[in-house]
Amino acid sequence: MIETLLRVRGISVRLFQSSNGKHPLLLLPSAGGQARDFNEIFPLLAEGTPVTSLDYPGFGASEIDPEIQRIEDLPPFIKCLMEVLDSETFYLLGYSMGGWIALQLALSFPNLVQKLILVATSSHPFKELPIQNIGGLKYKEILDLLYFDPEVKRKKAYAKLNRKEKEEIHRSTQALKSLLQFKDSQPDLTPFLNKIRNPTLILAPEFDPLIPREFQFDLGKAIPKSHLVYLKDTGHALIQEKPKEISEIITTFLYKN
User: Fold this and answer.
1) Per-residue confidence (pLDDT) for residue 80, from 0 to 100
2) Three-state SS for 46?
3) pLDDT by residue (tens digit) across 151-163?
4) Which terminus of the chain is more solvent-facing, meaning fewer CB atoms within 10 Å of its CB: N or C?
5) Residue 11 forms beta bridges with which residues?
6) Exposed/middle/buried for 255, CB within 10 Å: 0-12, 13-18, 19+?
7) pLDDT for the residue 181
8) Residue 183: per-residue pLDDT
9) What are residue 169's DSSP bridge partners?
10) Per-residue model confidence as pLDDT tens digits over 44-58
11) Nearest 5°: phi and psi at 79?
12) Which residues of the chain have pLDDT under 50?
């Protein structure tokens, strides 16, 4: 996993890449906005395809883009990013809030996305969901909301962050608050899901108080070429809880279907 800085629309964006290549897999992070979401699955996915992830503008180590005021401003930026990377088409995975961004990209630029993967997400505005209200909770309360597996939760509770990591998390929290301050930050995409023609994989955790699985079942019913996989004994952070199983499911979907 190679960390690089890329100029997109005049700002510096932090990327993590495995290698360059045709039809890369682009990973879009959750509301935390950082590529660190995918630390556990990145090397596993990179065994089969070039993989790229990023910190959203204003999040992590990426600079602020003054043109991005709302969540709905992120999909056009992602399109510009992939143009800079010279990727005419790509596979697209969106996790949590990143799933909404991925849906908007598939709707707005359907010819860019070869296959779509949605992980623990919803087509509804995140202001309507509990996930946008976790900022004021204590760390243990946040862990209880994110994780089902007690062992993974314990490891996260005792993980030590360095000063740089803490600063990047703080920047990301402030950036998310800024994006959510407007009532119309993120339109409801539910009425348009039947227009998505991309083959779509939906990964739904069994226990998710932040984005209840009913929302993901609704995605499966509405998107014509979709396949829903229901993962037992997982929470919202299913990527961290079952990285090997999830990576195998994604690889099968991308290359063996």
Assistant:
1) 96
2) coil
3) 988 888 888 889 9
4) C
5) 8
6) exposed
7) 85
8) 76
9) none
10) 999 888 999 999 999
11) -60, -45
12) 132
* Backbone phi, psi, residue 106, to 5°: -65, -35
Domain extents for the chain? 2-255
pTM: 0.94
Nearest one of 26, 248, 102, 223 to 215, comparing CA atoms: 223
Position 86, amino acid:
D
pLDDT recorded at residue 134: 54
Let me know if 41 is exposed, middle or buried by CB neighbors in 10 A (0-12, 13-18, 19+). Answer: buried
* Distant-in-sequence, close-in-space partners of 198: CB < 8 Å, separation ≥ 6: 106, 110, 113, 114, 115, 116, 225
Strand partners, 2: 17
| Residue-level pLDDT at 130 | 56
| Owner of token pair 């697209």 | 92
Query: Which pair of structure tokens corresponds to residue 14?
Result: 């932090």
What secondary structure letter does DSSP report for 126? Answer: G
Give me the count of residues in the chain.
257
d(CA 105, CA 83): 14
Closest alpha carbon to 106 in 247, 186, 187, 223: 223
The CATH number corresponding to 2-255 among 3.40.50.720, 1.20.1440.230, 3.40.50.620, 3.40.50.1820 equals 3.40.50.1820
Q: Do residues 49 and 23 touch, judged by C-beta distance below 8 A?
A: yes
Please report the beta strands in the chain, taking only residues with DSSP state E, as ranges in sequence order: 2-8, 11-17, 25-28, 51-54, 90-95, 113-119, 200-205, 226-231
43 exposed, middle or buried (CB, 10 Å; 0-12, 13-18, 19+)?
A: middle
